[in-house]
Specification:
disordered N terminus; mainly beta
Amino acid sequence: MRLLRIALLLVGIMLGAAEALAMPQDSMTVKLHNTALNKDTVINARVMFETESKYFLSLGDSVLVVPKAKKNLLTRFMDYLLDTNTDYSKKFRFSLLGGPSYDSETKLGLAILGNGTFRLNGCSPESQPSNATLAGRISTSGFWSVGLDGNIFFPDDKMRLYYSLEFDHYPTKFWGIGYKNGDQDDNEVSMNRNELVLDANFTFRAFPHFYIGPKINWTYVNVDSIARMELLNGQRLYSRSYGAGLTMSYDTRDNMMDASRGVYVELDQMFFPGFLGNKAKFARTSVKACYYHSLWKGAHVAGEVKGDFNYGKPAWTMLAKLGGSREMRGYYPGRYRDYNMMMAQVELRQKIWYKLGCVVWGGAGSVFKDGKIADHILPSYGLGMRWEFRKKMNVRFDYGFGKKGQSAFSLGLF
């Protein structure tokens, strides 16, 4: 009788169709329709394995092949958005996302981002994956941007390559050079700015977690006009800066893209000499220290201290700046600029539910030339939301507050 029942079921499959109703982890409930008897039968079967289009089920001594239900375009799109469990053990993984973006400088826009993760031959499946990101943005203010950046990790993490190439065109604002000019609302002028920036470094592991290597930077900026030329202190509207130097870092972070524990310290020394073709000759020292620590379930704290220090006569386009969507949020990017900059911030990150999280931060910073940093402290604080689009890749909603009612909202990916 048992063999007869199985035979009838198999004949029903050959004459009819099988429809998948649900799939637990290792079993599936299947409804079989026998066209000869015009009857439905529901059975439970163990899932042996699956492909993109079919399930292979164990049914006694036989194998039952069940086609997967086809998904419409909306369902496939929602599955793509909700799939955050990226398998980094794969040789190559590509993610694509497009959506709205907003910040105080570029206004409302559209961003399209393609991100690929991969491993070079010889890298273990457990190693941190290399990544490459190609991004394009356009906004209602007339801003547009195209950029490529990424990190390549070599086998055993003995060498690392970082690269970034970005071309921007955007209407922006300018208040002049120095803290006092930036603090005057009446100094605000508009300009159209074109900028091309190439930045790269290639480091070698000298000691455990310690990397050192050469670094290059090429920055070209051209501004069509400005209403108040005196704000430039006699400098030209355009500049070309060619730099080379050395970078050193100490890195114990669990993940470079979105760390939750560890320490990262970086020291860069760059030179922009005349023999490289620089009209404005100067040197720059940049230092950054970050600390990440897990607190309780779903929460960790991130702290950062950063400083940029210029020597010589840098072009106004290469001065140290405050503000933006990553550091000192709440200030228009570049409103405060001078020879030197120092800032510190602490951010608490808490996962709320599923892929949703929130952040709250506070910090302070300043720009200065003569070392009187204590006279020009700028506060920064705010809160935001995070949606985990992909593992270690978030959609960000932030609202930051600064001095004298200054504030800024930003929406984007990181």
